[in-house]
Every structure is written in structure tokens, then in C-alpha cells.
Amino acid sequence: LLRDVPGITLLRRFASLCAVIFGTNGGVQDVLRPNVMGCFGGSSSKSDAEEDKRRKEANKKIEKQIQKDKQIYRATHRLLLLGAGESGKSTIVKQMRILHVNGFSEEEKKQKIEDIKKNIRDAILTITGAMSTLVPPVQLQKSENQWRVDYIQDVASSPDFDYPAEFYEHTEILWKDKGVQAAFERSNEYQLIDCAKYFLDRVATIKQLDYTPNEQDILRCRVLTSGIFETKFQVDKVNFHMFDVGGQRDERRKWIQCFNDVTAIIFVTACSSYNMVLREDPNQNRLRESLDLFKSIWNNRWLRTISVILFLNKQDLLAEKIKAGKSRLEEYFPEFAHYQTPSDAVIETGEDPEVIRAKYFIRDEFLVSEFLYAVS
Question: Which residues bind GTP (predicted)?
Fold first, then answer.
């Protein structure tokens, strides 16, 4: 979804939605002027003339470089990723790196191993910890696994935990327990990272001493974004600078620092979050928070001249939830019960009709203004 601002150019892939031509304000300013020295009452000496010539040549080079830098600056599109926490903004940045910046080096992949291990630990800690707090609580299928739960909760929760072999053994066995699986199925009732299943399914691979993360592992790895991170890439000879900013409420105060000279705002929302609440506010639905946040950005008078792209993310997870039928969309958004799929909906071969209806309903929830229009 794009704000209708003249100058938007469609480029290939996701980056193709982002190019907007910068305006210019004339030529090079008088940054440096030749400093010509002369002698009173007569012509300059030969040495002074040579010095003057060198200065002029140096200033010409500087002026030329300034002109070149300005052209590069004006030809660079600055994309600001905004959205609520855990909407997938950082994953988009990583995808851009893989597609357009030669991916991740072997050293960078190795550095991600610790984060991936932490994702596994956080996942099994959270699921087993929630079993007794859910209403009604969930019991282990095999009571003899209780000592493994105790290990996870008491030992693996240590800040300086070093991931011994027994940790992976306990995790693999617990993950196969039907009681733990039942608790996982109710993960919308507590806070669980959405890569939990992916990494818990891959423990046997990740625990190996020679393990190196693949691209999918890096994309799935969850690390809290705090601060502002810039990624530079090029698509079809067009330069892009993408800025990733934390989406939690306490991080949003930093957004104002990024609005200067922004070409476009890419607002990312997690479609699958319709049945989840915020980490920072258990009384607020995540998708409704995203809707409110998008509206506030759209209606901000200081951002009227900035193009806006709405990126509806995590549709694969949305499809899984809709097809499972355990968290019905109408239970969280009652208006969905009477919603009809638009006649112009683009339907992929074999796609579930209910999934299509859900996708378009969420899209249309964001189409709250006649000034918005959809771009396939």
C-alpha cells in the first residue's frame, strides 16, 4: 500500500516498491572560495603565483567532489522501517542483505550461533514455564520428564549458562512430549518468540560442534532491536539506505531521529499477530496496536510529504493459524464474521479460501482512508 505521491517508481522485488526521486535545491553552495594573495603595489612573485595556482586547482577538486557527493546523496533513497515490536522488520533487513549485499560472511554466521542457541533456550524455558500458569494448566504426558523440566527452569535459566550436551538432550525429549506440544499450541496465551518451533525442530542439527547457520537460520533468528541500524544496498544501480528501528513502545521515541531526508516509510505489520498481545502491555492486541500505530503515522502532518509503503508480513504464519482453526479471527475481530472476499482478490492455485478471506480482511482494515490504494 502506497501513499499517492508523484515520483514513486516500481523496482524489482521488495526494493522495487521503494524508489522515490529526491528534490534538489540548485547547485553547489559557496563552500570554499579561492584564497588569492597578492603583493601591495605590484605583481605577485613567481612563488606566489604558483601557490595561487595550486590553491585554485585544489579548490576545483574539492568543488568537483562536493558536486559528486551531492549527486550521490540525491540519488540515494532512504527507507525507514517502522512497525510494532516483533513485526519482522529486522528479517526484512536480513533478506535485503542476502539478496543485494552478498549475504553474511562465515564469520558473521558463526557469530549468530550464540543468538540461535539463546532462541532455543528461551523457547523451551518459556513453554515449560507456561505449562503451570495456563488456565487450565497443562500436564506432561510423561511424568518422568518432570526432572528435565526442573533442569530447564533451574539450571538453564542461569545468565552464564554454557549449553552443555545434556541441555540439548533434555530439550529434544521435552519437545517430543505431548504435554509440551499442547502448551505450545496455546502459545497465543503467553509470550513466545515466533521462531520457537523452527529452532526446537532443529536442535539435533544445531547442537553439533561443526554447526554453521544457513540463511534460513539467520532469517529466523530473533534478536531484540534496540537503537537504529543502517543497511546499504543497491538494486538496478539504484542506491538504498535502509534504517531499522526498534518497535517496542519504549523504542519509538527514537523514531523522530530518523525522519530527516527519508524517501519512504515502510510500515511492517505481522498479519499473524491477530490473536496475540503486546509484551509491554498484556491488555493490548498486537494487530490492533499495529493498526493504531499505522493510522498515527499516516495522519501525522509532519510526514505528509513522505511516501508510505504498508508491508503485510508473516502471512505464512497467518495461514497456519487460520487452517488450524484453534484461534478464530472473528473472536478477536468480530467484523470478520460478515466480511466477504473482494471480487478482485488475487488467488494463488490451491490457496485455502478462508486464508484468502483473512488476508484481505486484514489488508482492508488498514484501508481506512480514500487516499490509500492497493498495489499488488
Answer: 86-91, 219-225, 244-248, 313-316
Report the distance separating Cα 21 and Cα 202, nearest Å: 44
- Amino acid of residue 31: V
- Can you tell me the distance from the alpha carbon of 126 to that of 223, in angstroms, rounded to the nearest whole number? 16
330 labeled part of a ligand binding site: no
CATH fold of 113-212, please? GI Alpha 1, domain 2-like (1.10.400)
Cβ burial, residue 98 (10 Å; 0-12/13-18/19+): middle
**Which carries the bigger pLDDT value, residue 205 or residue 255?**
205
Q: Residue ranges of the domains in the chain?
A: 80-104+225-373, 113-212
Of 254 and 310, the structure prediction assigns the larger pLDDT to 310
Q: Is 225 annotated as a binding residue?
A: yes
Which ranges constitute the DSSP H helices of the chain?
46-74, 89-100, 106-111, 113-130, 146-154, 165-176, 178-185, 196-200, 203-206, 215-220, 286-298, 315-324, 329-332, 353-366
Residue 217 pLDDT grade (very low, low, confident, very high; cuts 50, 70, 90)? very high
162-171, 209-218, 261-270: which range is least confident on average? 261-270
Which sequence positions are flagged as catalytic?
86, 91, 222, 244, 248
Ligand-binding site membership of 88 (annotated) = yes
Q: How far apart are the first and last CA of the chain?
A: 8
Q: Which three cell numbers stand for residue 317?
A: 504464519
Using CA atoms, how far apart are residues 249 and 85, in angstroms rounded to an integer? 8
Would you tell me the crossing angle of helices 353-366 and 286-298 to the nearest 10 degrees? 40
| Averaged pLDDT of the chain | 82
Window from 88-102, 115-129, 195-209, 358-372 with minimum mean pLDDT? 358-372
Q: How confident is the model at residue 73 (pLDDT cuts 50, 70, 90)?
A: low
| CA-derived radius of gyration, the chain | 27
Which DSSP string do the residues of 11-31 spell out, in sequence order? Answer: -STGGGG-EEPPP---S----
Residues 6+ apart with CB under 8 A from 5: 20, 305, 306, 307
* pTM of this structure: 0.74
CATH number of this structure's domain 80-104+225-373: 3.40.50.300
Does 90 carry a binding-site annotation?
yes
Q: Is 89 annotated as a binding residue?
A: yes
